[in-house]
């Protein structure tokens, strides 16, 4: 064996273009096949034989820390819509060319657990309707100039490290009175989603509200998807700083 196993911290689940954050206890769908007895009197050597029949996929399950965000409230209530969504499990970005698994499914369980013993979380299950597709070639991802950020007062904000196609985690310090940010992504191929909403290349996203208070953190994802390829996912960690926006 010439390769080492890699840590799966950073595995993501996507519902359509929305990257679901703060994920834990992910259980990939278990696939089993029905086994049917095909033995007959003239089997060679009198050995029983079987034939695989129906294939059954158990649901995917995961937990996600509950923050009360609009996106999470939508996730919590979507079970009533019975919508079929494209669900994708994306392995961490350091898995070579990326690996992802995708299928069509419905939310079949969504329980808000808030018993006071730990942070509140959503206990989720998603059905698997049909074959699970595997993709081992990554989407092209962001391309130069990658992305830019400005706050609600049109101040440009600088990520650390500098924006790049091959860096997937960033920190951005905002002004103490920044309320929201807009992100302008660039990709020459595929479809871009900023915080789960489709955005055209070179076009600013809608305003993304930041958690308020010095030191407060807001995580925002940029996902680039392409047909029959593993998505590229970039995370930006916005932290409210101590300096107020500059006055004109």
Comma- or semicolon-separated keywords:
2 domains, 5-stranded antiparallel β-sheet, 20 strands, 5-stranded mixed β-sheet, single chain, mainly beta, 248 residues
Q: What can you tell me about this protein's structure?
A:
The protein has 248 residues and is mostly beta strands. The protein folds into two domains: 12-31 and 56-135; 147-240. The protein has one helix spanning 70-77; strands at 12-15, 18-20, 23-27, 31-37, 50-57, 60-65, 85-90, 100-105, 107-113, 121-126, 133-135, 147-151, 156-157, 169-174, 180-185, 191-194, 197-199, 208-209, 217-225, 232-240. The strands form five sheets. A five-stranded antiparallel sheet has the order 2-1-7-8-11, with no helix packed on it. It has a five-stranded mixed sheet with strand order 14-20-19-16-17, with no helix packed on it. The radius of gyration is 22 Å and the shape is elongated. The N and C termini lie far apart (63 Å). 25% of the residues are buried. The model has no long low-confidence stretch (mean pLDDT 92).
Short description:
This protein is mainly beta. The protein has one helix spanning 70-77; strands at 12-15, 18-20, 23-27, 31-37, 50-57, 60-65, 85-90, 100-105, 107-113, 121-126, 133-135, 147-151, 156-157, 169-174, 180-185, 191-194, 197-199, 208-209, 217-225, 232-240. It folds into two domains: 12-31 and 56-135; 147-240.
SSE topology sketch:
Blueprint: E1 12-15, E2 18-20, E3 23-27, E4 31-37, E5 50-57, E6 60-65, H1 70-77, E7 85-90, E8 100-105, E9 107-113, E10 121-126, E11 133-135, E12 147-151, E13 156-157, E14 169-174, E15 180-185, E16 191-194, E17 197-199, E18 208-209, E19 217-225, E20 232-240
Parallel strand pairs: 14-20
Antiparallel strand pairs: 1-2, 1-7, 3-6, 4-5, 6-10, 7-8, 8-11, 9-10, 12-13, 12-15, 15-18, 16-17, 16-19, 19-20
């Amino acid at each position: 064996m010439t390769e080492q196993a890699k840590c799966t911290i950073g595995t993501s689940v996507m519902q359509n273009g929305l990257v679901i954050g703060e994920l834990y206890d992910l259980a990939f769908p278990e696939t089993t096949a029905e086994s049917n007895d095909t033995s007959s009197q003239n089997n060679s050597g009198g050995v029983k034989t079987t034939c695989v029949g129906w294939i059954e996929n158990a649901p995917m399950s995961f937990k996600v820390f509950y923050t009360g965000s609009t996106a999470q409230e939508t996730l919590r209530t979507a079970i009533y819509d019975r919508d079929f969504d494209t669900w994708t499990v994306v392995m961490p970005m350091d898995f070579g060319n990326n690996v992802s698994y995708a299928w069509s499914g419905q939310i079949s369980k969504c329980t808000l657990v808030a018993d006071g013993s730990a942070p509140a979380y959503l206990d989720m299950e998603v059905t698997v309707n049909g074959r699970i597709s595997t993709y081992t070639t990554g989407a092209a991802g962001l391309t130069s100039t990658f992305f830019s950020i400005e706050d609600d007062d049109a101040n440009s904000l600088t990520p650390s490290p500098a924006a790049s196609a091959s860096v997937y985690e960033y920190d951005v310090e905002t002004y103490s009175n920044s309320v929201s940010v807009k992100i302008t992504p660039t990709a020459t191929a595929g479809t871009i989603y900023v915080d789960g909403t489709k955005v055209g290349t070179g076009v600013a996203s809608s305003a993304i509200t930041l958690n308020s208070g010095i030191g407060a953190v807001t995580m925002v994802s940029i996902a680039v998807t392409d047909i029959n390829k593993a998505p590229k996912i970039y995370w930006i960690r916005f932290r409210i700083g101590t300096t107020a926006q500059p006055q004109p």
